[in-house]
Amino acid sequence: MLTIYGVARSRAFRCLWAAEEAGIAYAHVPVMFGPEAQAPEFLALNPNGTVPAMRDGELVLFESLAINLHIAAKAGPPLLPIGADHSRVLQWTLWAATEIEPQVMQWARNSFMLPEAQRDAALAAAGRAAADLRLAVLEGHLAGRPFLLGEGFTIADCNLAGVLYGSWFRGYDLSALPRVAAWMERCMTRPAALTARRLREE
After folding, report:
1. b/e map of 127-155 (b: 16 or more CB within 10 Å)?
2. Taking a C-beta distance cutoff of 8 angstroms, is the pair 152, 93 a contact?
3. Domain check: are 52 and 143 in the same one?
């Protein structure tokens, strides 16, 4: 049995969504970030003391996007394509982690995550500007295609939309990026996404 550790109001959301898309049975153990993630029994799963973590038989993984790639591999195509499209999935997954997530997190931390007295408006603006540059790349890529790899949804869409979910949910303005806005709407209203969102938003 696949087990996903971490509250839905964390990066574990991405893994819960991926498991729903894969249609595989899983158990959810809602470990809270902070003290619960520092407990010895959880550190045995994720020595970083962060959520999520995953156990699948003898395999234990941390890092949400790596967990998602493992989940997608269990499902196979079309969630995780083969051949050149497999490489494109890896490209967009790494782009999500390295190019866009640091920027949107800087905006989010200084817009709503930190206590108001600790927020820095200049850092929020800089994160927004850097994120918009990356989102312009995504806007161009989505011309003529509903999903990242073309006509069909893949784990690449789950990974990237999962990274963008928190900022999107908190009202990140995508009005200048209509293709990105429409793609996010397509991704986040999928039945599997709605199931995971209910766990997080309720």
Report:
1. bbebbbebbeebbeebeeeebbbeeebbb
2. no
3. no
Note whether 180 and 114 are same-domain residues.
Answer: yes
What is the tens place of the pLDDT at every residue in 161-202?
Answer: 999 999 999 999 999 999 999 999 999 999 999 999 999 998
**Which CATH number goes with the domain that contains 30?**
3.40.30.10
Distances (CA, A) of 144 to 151, 152, 183: 9, 13, 11
Q: Is 112 helix (H, G, I), strand (E, B) or coil?
A: helix
Range of the domain at 6: 2-75
Q: Phi and psi dihedrals of 5, rounded to 5?
A: -105, 130
Alpha carbons within 13 angstroms on the beta-carbon side of residue 16 total: 24
Q: Is 158 left (phi over 0), alpha (psi -120 to 50) or beta?
A: alpha
Identify the domain boundary among 15, 49, 75: 75
- Residue 140 in contact with residue 180, Cβ under 8 Å? no
d(CA 174, CA 154): 22
The candidate with the shortest Cα–Cα distance to 171, out of 129, 84, 97, 111, is 111
The string of pLDDT tens digits covering residues 47-70 is 999 999 999 999 999 999 999 999
Give yes or no for a contact between 61 and 195, defined as CB atoms under 8 angstroms apart: no
